[in-house]
Design a protein that fits this description.
single chain, two-stranded antiparallel ribbon, 2 strands
């Protein structure tokens, strides 16, 4: 939400690109009650970001066992329907944090994708054809982030193509990102 606002405010000055970062690299199942208790921690970011829907897990659906399926689906949607990139990302977040759905489940992913306008049959075809190679891309993105010292979501990397970059971990106010970008621009022009 904040990054959407930043992109709107600074559209003429920044290029925005999402990358994959895995919260659950290896598939893992856990105790449902412990997971529900963990989701109470979502209430703090909910207070700081009123536009983002966070709700303590209240469904009977299991927690997603891995982050890989939704990351792969996001890349497939972005590749086939680039105009749906933001909508799919936001709808996945809503499905997970507000509706408490298992967004690693294939049918849930397809439902979310069709909600934003993707064709479910085509997405199934893409998944059959490309899941292995796209999974490798997701893992490569994750590993590159870890190698660069990134360990949290969100982390916003602000910089230029010359490799002068600053990683800003955690959700920051839009004004913080704007100040950093402006400072880096002024340093570059001096």
């Amino acid at each position: 939400m904040r990054l959407d606002e930043l992109r709107d405010r600074m559209a003429d000055r920044i290029t925005f690109e999402r990358r994959s970062f895995l919260l659950r690299v290896e598939p893992k199942t856990g105790d449902h009650e412990r997971f529900v208790e963990y989701t109470k921690s979502w209430l703090a970011p909910a207070q700081q970001e009123p536009r983002a829907p966070f709700r303590v897990w209240s469904s009977d659906e299991p927690q997603p066992p891995s982050s890989i399926p939704m990351q792969v689906a996001w890349r497939l949607v972005r590749g086939e329907w680039p105009e749906l990139d933001d909508a799919f990302h936001h709808e996945l977040m809503r499905a997970y944090f507000e509706d408490n759905r298992n967004i690693a489940d294939a049918e849930t992913i397809l439902d979310v994708a069709t909600t934003v306008g993707a064709d479910a049959d085509r997405l199934r075809e893409l998944a059959v054809e490309h899941t292995e190679s796209v999974t490798a891309e997701v893992i490569a993105d994750h590993n590159a982030a870890v190698q660069a010292g990134i360990s949290s979501i969100p982390t916003v990397v602000i910089g230029d193509l010359d490799g002068n970059a600053l990683a800003v971990p955690g959700a920051q106010p839009v004004e913080t990102y704007e100040r950093i970008i402006t400072r880096l621009e002024s340093q570059r022009s001096s």
